[in-house]
Design a protein that fits this description.
- It is built from ten helices and no strands.
- It is mainly α.
- It has two domains: 3-73; 83-222, no CATH class.
- α2 (19-41) crosses α3 (46-55).
- The longest helix is centred in the middle third of the chain and has 37 residues, at 83-119.
- The protein is rod-shaped and about 100 Å long.
C-alpha cells in the first residue's frame, strides 16, 4: 500500500459506508495519485510531492459537508453494531425472555402444589408464591415486548413478503410452534405434579393457563 492509499484509508476511517462516500474516496485517491506522479515527474522527491498533494486535499470538515451525508453519523464508532446486528443479537435474548416468562407461570403452579404439602391447603403461602411467580412472568414478557417494539423499523425493513396471507401464514406457523411447546410443558408439569405430589386434581389448572399463554403469544405475533 503506497503513501497516498494509506493516507486516504486513514482519512476515511470511521466514515459511513454510504455510496457517495465510497465514490468520493475512490475518485479522490485517483486524483491524488495522478497529481503525486506528475510532481514526481517534475523532479520533486517523494516527501515533497506527498506534502504538496496533501496540502491541496482541503479541509476534511468541508469535504464532509459537501457530500451531503447526515452529520450525525460521521462520528459513530466504526466497531459499533448496526441496528440490524443489534436486532439479530436481541432476537435470541427475546426468545429466551419469553421462554423464561412462560416458565414462571408453570413454576408458580409447581410452587402452589409443592408448598401445599408443607403448609396445607388452608394456608395463603402457596397462593402467594404462585402469584409472585406469575407476576414475575408477566413482567418479563412485558419488558421483552417493550424492548422488541424498539426494533419495529428494523423488522419492517427486513420484511420481504408483502402478501397479507403469506405474512399471516408465517405468523400462524410460529405461533403453533410456540403453543405446542407451551402445552408440552403444561402436560409435563401435570404428570410430574400428579405422580410426585399426588396432586392430579389441582394440577389440571395448568391446561387452562397454557391456553391463556397461547392466546397471549398469538396476540403478540399479530402485532
Amino acid at each position: 500500500m503506497d503513501k497516498i492509499e494509506t493516507y486516504i484509508q486513514n482519512v476515511f476511517s470511521g466514515w459511513p459506508e454510504a455510496e457517495v462516500v465510497t465514490k468520493t474516496k475512490s475518485n479522490l485517491q485517483s486524483l491524488m495519485k495522478t497529481h503525486y506522479e506528475r510532481l514526481l515527474s517534475e523532479g520533486k522527491n517523494e516527501d515533497e510531492a506527498f506534502g504538496l498533494v496533501v496540502s491541496q486535499f482541503g479541509n476534511v470538515e468541508e469535504l464532509k459537508a459537501s457530500l451531503g451525508v447526515d452529520p450525525a453519523i460521521w462520528y459513530q464508532d466504526p466497531l459499533a453494531p448496526t441496528p440490524l446486528e443489534e436486532y439479530r443479537a436481541f432476537k435470541t435474548k427475546y426468545a429466551l425472555a419469553i421462554a423464561a416468562g412462560v416458565c414462571m407461570f408453570f413454576l408458580g403452579i409447581i410452587s402452589l402444589l409443592f408448598l401445599e404439602t408443607f403448609f396445607g391447603a388452608d394456608s395463603n403461602m402457596p397462593v402467594i408464591a404462585m402469584l409472585l411467580f406469575m407476576m414475575l412472568g408477566v413482567a418479563i414478557i412485558i419488558v421483552a415486548n417493550i424492548s422488541n417494539s424498539k426494533f419495529a423499523d428494523v423488522k419492517a425493513s427486513m420484511r420481504i413478503e408483502t402478501d397479507p396471507k403469506a405474512i399471516a401464514k408465517r405468523r400462524k406457523k410460529t405461533s403453533d410452534k410456540i403453543c405446542s411447546l407451551i402445552m408440552c410443558i403444561a402436560t409435563l408439569v401435570f404428570f410430574l405434579s400428579g405422580s410426585l405430589l399426588s396432586a392430579w386434581h389441582p394440577a389440571w389448572v395448568v391446561f387452562p393457563i397454557g391456553g391463556i399463554l397461547c392466546g397471549i403469544v398469538d396476540t403478540i405475533l399479530k402485532k
